[in-house]
Amino acid sequence: MASQSTGEPWSVESKLSSLRESPPKTQTTSPVPFFHMLTRLKTTKREGWRRFNITDGESISDHMYRMALITMFAPPSLSARLDIARCTKMALVHDMAELLVGDITPVDNISKQEKSRRESTTMDYLTTSLLGNVGGGVAGEDIRAVWEEYETGDTLESKFVHDVDKVELLLQMLEYEQASGANTDLGEFAWVATRVVLPEVKQWCEEILDARRELWRSRGIVPSDLSGGVNPIKKGQEG
Hints:
Layout: H1 12-18, H2 32-37, H3 39-43, H4 60-71, H5 76-79, H6 84-93, H7 98-101, H8 112-130, H9 138-152, H10 156-179, H11 199-217, E1 221-222, E2 231-232
């Protein structure tokens, strides 16, 4: 779980002290301590799937890596208006704070304000304490700025990456359902398709959801595209 079990407020320092490995050196001119810290993105799992007994699911870096690749496939009508390289970078850093904060989900009962505080202080630690003296701090400042742009969500690039975030979730949802032989209903995640903003990305979502409907139709079941559990197909619903 992402929440802290003690009564003390969550802090970067308390989280670091709870880790089995020694905290990385800070204020160094080498990026290697930062490189080591990144391994936590590879080992920290995305939490939402665990409630469905998917215990060996994707890591945070799994999620961000596919997102980064997806950004490279923006249709021409969209890519002409985007800085694709910045989008790819944004996809690779947008969940970076989760290497210490963890993947906070609604069941953790952590407020949006508190989640933001934890993530912001973690990014300060990564980009200032670990990277502040690396190459004059330029790389750290760039990472922090790109992360902040995603969080603010005002630019077209950030809107695109937010949409790609949802596409990647939908892909993973369908893939886990397929792997279960349509025995695990993950339909509660499908609602994110309704939050996609850009028309080009909405088309990707529809393609994914159509494939999901076909998967469940093959079992004689109408999937819960946006809420609730799956239900047997009723007469007249097949078409």
